[in-house]
Amino acid sequence: MKKKLLFVNNNLHSGGIQRSLLNLLHNIENEYDITLLLMYPEGEYKEQLPKNIAVLHSPPLLRVLGMSQKEVLHENKLLFFWRSFFAVLCRWFGNSVPLRILAHFQPKLSGYDAAISYMQSEAPKLLYGGTNEIVLKRVDAKEKITVVHSDFLNCGSNTPAIRKLYQKFDKVLSCSSGCRERFIQANPGLKDRTYVVNNFNEYDKIVQMGSQDPIPYPKDRINLVTVARLSEEKGIERALLAVQNCLKSGIPILYHIIGDGMQRIPLQEMCRQLEISEQVFFYGTKKNPYRYIKNADLFFLTSYHEAAPIVFSESKCLGVPILATQTTSVKEMILDDEAGWVCENNAEDICRMLKEVCSNPEALRQKKQLLAGRTYTNACSQAQWHHALGED
Predict the structure, then answer these.
(1) Would 4-201+379-388 and 203-372 be classified into the same CATH topology?
(2) What residue ranges of the chain have pLDDT lower than 70?
(3) CATH assignment of 4-201+379-388, given 3.40.50, 2.160.20, 3.40.960, 1.10.287?
(4) Are 174 and 197 in contact (CB under 8 A)?
């Protein structure tokens, strides 16, 4: 008989956690009896869910944990009131008590071999997530597992209340060795309960989609691409300064940015002020970002902090080398894999390294050739997953 697994997540919007969850479900759907509980059952990835998993929806009030303020206002004014009320409580007192209160609106669920909270706890001032509280308080399962997708020391979650919450889980899964190390630094008592399970990827699908009408970039320019949510932690403003610096030095660069977010308008205004609007292109969110990566010369990510970006693996399997700032997982994902370059996490070194890399087209060509000769699989992630669940 197949094991019964319950996954709990907040929504299916476009994002790294949601992408990671989808990739995992597609890789294990035939091995287990899987149920997915969603706070808000909408999002760009809704149509990509495997068809043979059961999907449960939380009661209406819990939808606020997976919705933006704009979405709530558009859907229901009463729900908007409650979201605003709980958001104020979070700002004043932290989210520990509000999330526990909201979790109790979820009817109890039982009969699972493992219940898996697929989101980490968010910073205390944010009303978001709540999956850890629901798994701990409202689910009866033989094992309770949580997944950490962040640099725990830098994401705002390293508080006494959140550390105490994690101690209640039977197991913690981390998406990279670097993330596990950072989590254990904050939670040394959980070392023996914390496992690495690298993100799964749908490599064949990525290659196929990348070959569907790939963008034909000008070959007389060095084409940089970033695929990311346009939010403050991604540090895109530093990328723009580095691009301006290269252009002033006579290096012919075009910068292609795929993604959207609250920083898009300020970043576009910054381009105008830097006088680089003709060399920087904002495409917004795309259903097929891989056709934008496929013909690029370099994937460029200048985040202040990251966990284990899935887009690194996607870029590598499309044969595109990476330049990224020093964050939690770049050693294992870029340097150890000889997949590109890593610079210090400051504006000056980003400028220096981008100029150095783009001044050497032959080095870029050789990196692309090296990556193009590789084949990527999920064998390592599958072994890690089965080990973490005690199935090896």
Answers:
(1) yes
(2) none
(3) 3.40.50
(4) yes
Taking the CB of residue 313, how many other CB atoms lie within 10 A of it?
A: 23
- 194-98-7 Cα angle (round to 5): 40
Q: For the whole model, what pTM was predicted?
A: 0.91
Dump the DSSP string for 368-390: HHHHHT----SHHHHHHHHHHTT
Closest CA to 202 of 368, 376, 54: 376
Distance CA 296, CA 99 (A): 43
Domain coordinates of the chain in residue numbers? Answer: 4-201+379-388, 203-372
Contacts of 161 by beta carbon, 8 Å cutoff, 6+ apart: 94, 96, 124
pLDDT of residue 307: 87
169 burial level (CB within 10 Å; 0-12, 13-18, 19+): buried
**CATH superfamily, domain at 203-372:** Glycogen Phosphorylase B; (3.40.50.2000)
β-partners of residue 389 are none
Can you state the percent helix, strand and coil of the chain, rounding each to 5? 45, 20, 40
- Each as own residue / partner, the long-range contacts of residues 94-98 (CB below 8 Å, 24 or more positions apart, any chain) are 94/124, 94/125, 94/159, 94/161, 95/122, 95/124, 95/125, 95/126, 95/127, 96/124, 96/161, 96/162, 96/165, 98/127
- Please state the length of the chain: 392
